[in-house]
C-alpha cells in the first residue's frame, strides 16, 4: 500500500496551470485554490513557479500566506504597469507624503501665526487669561527618498 | 566571413552570471554593466533571467532602462524582506499618508478655529478691517487603500 502524499481530487490553481499532479503536500495548495487561478497566473508570469517555490521554501509556514499575498499584489502591479510595477505606486505615495508634509508645515505655521495675532489682540484688550488653543503635535520630521527602502514595518 | 553579432570583449553582468557568450545584441548589455553584478544577481534571483527577457522584449527600447531600474529596486526589496518585499514599503507609505492626512485635517481645523476667535476678538475692538490670514488650500481629499493600485503616475 502506498504511503506517498494523497492526490487532490481537484488540483490547486498552480498545478492546474502547470499541468502536474496536485497532492496534499503541494507547496502551492494552501494559497492558490482552484477558484483563484488569476492570482497564480500573475505570479507565474512575473516571478515564475520555480522562483516562487524557492522563496516559499525559505519562509516559515506561518509567514507564507503573507508572502504569497504580497507577491500576488506585486505581480498584478507589474502586469498592469510593465515599466514601473509596484515601484510606480511607491513613487506616487512618496510624492503624496512630501506634498502632505509641505501642506502640514504651512497649516501649522498659519496656526502659529494666528495664535500670536490672537494673543496680541487679547493682550490689548487686557485679558488676564487667554483661551488659545495649544499647537498640535506635528510629525513634520519625515524624510523620504525613493532609494530609502525601509521595510521594517509590516502590513 | 561571419556577419553575426560581435562578441563583447568583456561580458555584461548577466552573461557573466549565466556563463554565456555576450554579444552586441545581448538584451541585458545596456542595463547590466560588468561593474553592477549585484543588480543582475537580485533580479535573477527574484524574477529569473527568462522572465526578465520576456518582459523587456514587450517594452519599447526607450522605456527599458526605467523598467530595469524598477525591477532591480523591487528585487532588492524582496531580497531584504522575503515576506513583504516592496509591498511592505507601500503599506508603510500608505500608513504615513493617512497619518499626515489626519494631522493636516487637525491643523486646518485649528487654524479655522483660531481665525474665528481672532475675528470675534477684533470685532469687539471695533476693527474696521481685519488682517487675518485666509485659509490655505488643503488637499484633505485623499483616500488610499492598499488594494487601490494607481499606477498611472510615473516616477
Chart the SSEs and their pairings.
The structure is a homodimer of 155-residue chains.
Chain A lengths: L12 H6 L18 H10 L2 H9 L3 H20 L4 H40 L31
Detailed description of the structure:
The structure is a homodimer of 155-residue chains. Chain A is an all-alpha fold. Chain A folds into two domains: 13-80, no CATH class; 86-128 and 140-146. In chain A, 55% of the residues lie in helices and 0% in strands. Chain A has five helices and no strands. Chain A has helices spanning 13-18, 37-46, 49-57, 61-80, 85-124. In chain A, helix 2 (37-46) crosses helix 4. Chains A and B meet through helix 3, helix 4 and helix 5 of A and helix 3, helix 4 and helix 5 of B.
Task: Describe this protein with a few key phrases.
homodimer, 155 residues, mainly alpha, 2 domains, disordered C terminus
Q: Quick summary of this structure?
A:
The structure is a homodimer of 155-residue chains. Chain A has 155 residues and is mainly alpha-helical.
Low-confidence stretches of chain A: 139-155
The count of β-strands of chain A is 0
Alpha-carbon distance between the termini of chain A? 46 Å
Number of helices of chain A: 5
Oligomerization status of the protein chains? homodimer
Structural class of chain A: mainly alpha
Most strands sheet of chain A: none
Number of domains of chain A: 2
Largest interface: A-B, 72 and 71 residues
Q: H/E element string of chain A?
A: HHHHH
Strand content of chain A: under 5%
Question: How much is the average pLDDT of chain A?
Answer: 83
Tell me the radius of gyration of chain A.
Answer: 27 Å
Q: What percent of residues of chain A adopt helix (DSSP H or I)?
A: 40-55%
Categorize the overall geometry of chain A.
elongated
